[in-house]
Amino acid sequence: MSNAVVNGLAGAGGGLIAQIITYPLQTVNTRQQTERLAKKGRGSPHPNRRVGGTLVQILQVIRTEGFGGLYSGLKPSLLGTAASLGIYYYFYQVFKNKAEAIAVARGNKGRGDGTVGMFSWLVVAAIAGSLNVLLTNPIWVLVTRMQTHTQSERKIMEAKTEALLREASENSSMGSTLQDKLARLDSIKPHPYGTFHAACEVYNEAGITGFWKGIIPTLIMVCNPSIQFMIYESSLKHLRVKRAANKQGLKKVTAIEVFLLGAFAKLGATVSTYPLLVVKSRLQAKQEIGGDTSLRYSGTLDAIFKMIYYEGFRSFYKGMSTKIVQSVFAASVLFMIKEELVKAYSVLADKSQKFMVNMVK
Predict the structure, then answer these.
(1) What are the transmembrane regions (predicted)?
(2) First to last CA, the chain
(3) C-alpha span between 198 and 146 (Å, rounded)
(4) Domain total for the chain?
(5) What is the four-CA torsion angle of 82, 333, 59, 159, rounded to 10 degrees?
(6) Which end of the chain is more exposed for a tag (fewer CB within 10 A), N or C?
């Protein structure tokens, strides 16, 4: 089995475990990113209210939707994680092997030290990330829809309630009819829906192109894993060189060191690219929220301008603290498990090869 396939499978396995562990935080973070609260004086019908911190929102989801609400869209998310990381690590390893071969060839000719530079790591990660995005974006559109469905439905119910109250203030004869209508609206409780329902909704809303909503900011966000892997590979290389130079120390990097390096790399990448992630989530979430045009986006630039005008620049950083905790921890677990799986495969492969040699003898 080639090292590209091994790394692809190991990355998918590590990603699945990290996703299951941190998924509730991811669900809450997506809702934070897509929560649209207008600044005062901008004319939006939605009041400027606080929605509480991460823990408060987790408890609110549990109270209103049960624990299942925290895992809305988990099945397609696991599929997306396995596909994304499998594809990403496979192509990353393929292009990494090529980059290392080129670096060695240049080194043999006296051009460079024979190792891959930071810019080359960026290019390798960017190519692998772009291929991954183009192939898996439809899955993440469905995941975002399923994570934010109950939030969107609640917004629609709020808008309908406000419309009834305005109608009642203009027409005093509504009386008991108003109470009945309000009671019926209040009795409707939004529940998470399935993958097929989400796919039908996306298709009915925008056709087949709807499955590639948010593709522009997502492609730009390829720089996130590019920055992450540049920091990770550079730090790992530095640590290995330092460890090898210390003859009394261990030459191998431990699992906890990989965990910390992964956390450091993901932190730098997340902070620098978070606004793009918010725009992507806004575009992929349900657009029809109460019929308010300020809450619907026709594209990336439209989303950016409306967010600035109606909500201010702070809207680009909604839920960033939650994302940092979720993504940094998930990346740390992913890197640690992936490296351990690759090591385990290497050990098994060596034992298998030795066994075959002994059998031949």
Answers:
(1) 77-95, 116-135, 211-232, 253-277
(2) 24
(3) 7
(4) 1
(5) -40
(6) C
Residues contacting residue 204 through CB under 8 Å, at least 6 positions apart: none
Checking 166-174 for CB contacts under 8 A at 24+ apart, the result is none
CATH number at residue 252: 1.50.40.10
CA distances from 326 to 29, 238, 267 (A): 9, 27, 10
* Residue 348 structure tokens: 């098994």
pLDDT in tens, 88-142: 878 888 888 888 888 888 888 888 777 777 778 778 878 888 888 888 889 888 8
Domain boundaries, position 101: 3-360
Looking at residue 43, the DSSP 8-state letter turns out to be -
Tokens 């089995």 appear where? 1
CA–CA distances in Å: residue 353 to residues 1, 3, 350, 359, 360? 13, 16, 5, 10, 11
110: left (phi over 0), alpha (psi -120 to 50) or beta: left
The segments of the chain whose pLDDT lies below 50 read 44-49
CA distances in angstroms from 284 to 20, 149, 262, 292, listed in the order given: 22, 11, 28, 17
The Cα 333–Cα 327 span in angstroms is 10
Which residues, other chains included, contact 155 with Cβ-Cβ below 8 Å and sequence gap of 6+?
Answer: 46, 289, 290, 295
